[in-house]
């Protein structure tokens, strides 16, 4: 099947593979924006009995699932053979080494056999680019009709090419505020000093025996809870008076907070909040109240969720103001949280700044976001070491619009394959200023 964009160039289609944790995922994405297929085999049911991801079990499950998932993703996109595509992309870190290896090895094999370029993608950059995907799963018939004169489409609901952009990454493993100065150009403004936001949701859900994964369980319990019954701390925040920061009417009895001043103003810390929940539960027990009784658990869940959202929205709002950004994007598993989305929407609508959150199916781990990040890294990314095949050179947006990516030489060498590092653990390592 041959597709062209408005510039008359063939669409650049990538098969993306993601196995960094406990989701086996594959997708076909065109021009970094259009999702042709997006398959995710979740292992949640398997890990539920352990209360968290069991790494060895996760990698074995990836081995069992990956072939079917990739075949299904290709079939959904009407791709008869990998050679019809333009590149293979794979998450090469950060993540569980045993899980990453499964995806990386399959991607290497497919690329070597087909002669397609192999694009290693940082998982966090994948989460960032989930905001650039079009939220509707675009059928190919729709593909060229919606292009603008530059071969790129701006459709409501997904991020635009307006920079600087502020990115809040909130997942099970990471909580980071990132200033995105252009495609694939990042500055890390702050990160968690201990637990990630999603990890805190998971741990507090375990304390309250609400189930796994903790984020959706806390959110569900909080719906019948009173966030004002208990007060929990807002770590690395200080008392303030800006009432517009109040994320929800239910919280009107809570003090308003602003980020602390100084070096930690864009950093986060959630492990003390988890301890505060534990201390609150012990105090309730001492007073003769069963902390896990449904109403108490719901009230604690609501108070905890409110505290996390207060901190996330407060710091994001301050960073957006300080750096004069043109748009704000939230991504990662915790961006599925309803209160976080509502609170952020409420704040940024008030100040007239575009806010993007991926649709729910793109918040948690998936391969479509890896395909999007791979496209931008391939054509907009910072200069890399020139490879023997001539791939990896810098191309600016205009050059991309004019060129035909398919025409570039793409024979992979053994050196390219060996260069893939599955232990990549630093986010966005080749362009961040630490
Ligand atoms: P990873 O950290 O492996 O990249 P994801 O990006 O898929 O994982 O994020 C998973 C995390 O998102 C988990 O910690 C989970 O509890 C959290 N999460 C998922 N849905 C919600 C929600 N509705 N509210 C809060 N947290 C959520
Ligand atoms: Mg993730």
UniProtKB/TrEMBL annotation:
Keyword Iron annotated: yes
GO function terms (MF aspect): iron ion binding; tRNA N(6)-L-threonylcarbamoyladenine synthase activity
GO cellular component, one term: cytoplasm
Required cofactor(s): Fe(2+)
Family indicated by similarity: Belongs to the KAE1 / TsaD family.
Domain Gcp-like residue range list: 35-135, 160-371
Binding site for Fe cation: 123, 127, 365
Taxonomic lineage of the native organism: Bacteria, Bacillati, Chloroflexota, Caldilineae, Caldilineales
Protein name: tRNA N6-adenosine threonylcarbamoyltransferase
Catalytic reaction(s) noted: L-threonylcarbamoyladenylate + adenosine(37) in tRNA = N(6)-L-threonylcarbamoyladenosine(37) in tRNA + AMP + H(+)
Coiled coil start-end: none
EC number: 2.3.1.234
Protein keywords: Acyltransferase, Cytoplasm, Iron, Metal-binding, Transferase, tRNA processing
Function: Required for the formation of a threonylcarbamoyl group on adenosine at position 37 (t(6)A37) in tRNAs that read codons beginning with adenine. Is involved in the transfer of the threonylcarbamoyl moiety of threonylcarbamoyl-AMP (TC-AMP) to the N6 group of A37, together with TsaE and TsaB. TsaD likely plays a direct catalytic role in this reaction.
CDD domains linked to this entry: ASKHA_NBD_TsaD_bac
Cell compartments where the protein resides: Cytoplasm
Ranges of Basic and acidic residues composition bias in the record: 393-409
Matching Pfam families: TsaD (PF00814)
Record-linked NCBIfam families: T6A_TsaD_YgjD
């Amino acid at each position: 099947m041959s597709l062209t964009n408005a510039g008359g160039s063939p669409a650049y289609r990538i098969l993306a593979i993601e196995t960094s944790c406990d989701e086996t995922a594959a997708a076909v994405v065109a021009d970094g924006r259009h999702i042709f297929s997006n398959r995710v085999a979740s292992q949640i049911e398997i890990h539920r009995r352990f209360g968290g991801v069991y790494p060895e079990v996760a990698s074995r499950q990836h081995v069992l699932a990956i072939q079917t998932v990739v075949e299904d993703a290709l079939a959904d996109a009407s791709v008869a053979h990998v050679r019809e595509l333009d590149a293979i992309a794979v998450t090469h870190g950060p993540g569980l080494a045993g899980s990453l290896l499964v995806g990386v090895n399959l991607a290497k094999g497919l690329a070597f056999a087909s002669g397609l370029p192999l694009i290693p993608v940082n998982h966090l950059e994948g989460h960032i680019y989930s905001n650039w995907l079009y939220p509707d799963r675009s059928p190919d018939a729709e593909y060229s009709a919606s292009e603008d004169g530059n071969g790129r489409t701006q459709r409501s609901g997904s991020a635009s090419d307006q920079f600087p952009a502020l990115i809040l990454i909130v997942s099970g493993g990471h909580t980071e505020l990132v200033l995105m100065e252009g495609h694939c150009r990042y500055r890390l403004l702050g990160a968690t000093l201990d637990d990630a936001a999603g990890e805190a949701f998971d741990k507090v859900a375990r304390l309250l025996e609400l189930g796994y994964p903790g984020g959706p369980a806390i959110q569900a319990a909080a719906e019948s809870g009173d966030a004002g019954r208990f007060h929990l701390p807002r770590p690395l925040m200080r008392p303030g008076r800006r009432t517009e920061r109040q994320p929800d009417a239910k919280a009107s009895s809570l003090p308003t907070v602003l980020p602390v001043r100084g070096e930690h103003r864009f950093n986060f810390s959630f492990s003390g909040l988890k301890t505060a929940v534990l201390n609150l539960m012990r105090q309730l027990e001492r007073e003769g109240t069963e902390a896990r009784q449904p109403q108490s658990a719901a009230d604690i869940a609501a108070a905890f969720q409110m505290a996390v959202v207060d901190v996330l929205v407060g710091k994001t709002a301050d960073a957006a103001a300080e750096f004069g950004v043109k748009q704000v994007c939230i991504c990662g598993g915790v961006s599925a949280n309803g209160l976080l989305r509502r609170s952020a929407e409420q704040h940024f609508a008030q100040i007239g700044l575009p806010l993007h959150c991926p649709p729910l199916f793109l918040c948690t781990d998936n391969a479509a976001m890896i395909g999007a990040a791979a496209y931008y890294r391939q054509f907009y990314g910072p200069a890399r070491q020139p490879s023997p095949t001539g791939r990896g050179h810098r191309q600016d947006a205009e050059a991309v619009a004019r060129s035909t990516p398919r025409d570039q030489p793409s024979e992979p060498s053994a050196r390219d394959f060996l260069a893939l590092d599955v232990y990549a653990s630093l986010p966005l390592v080749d362009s961040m200023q630490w």
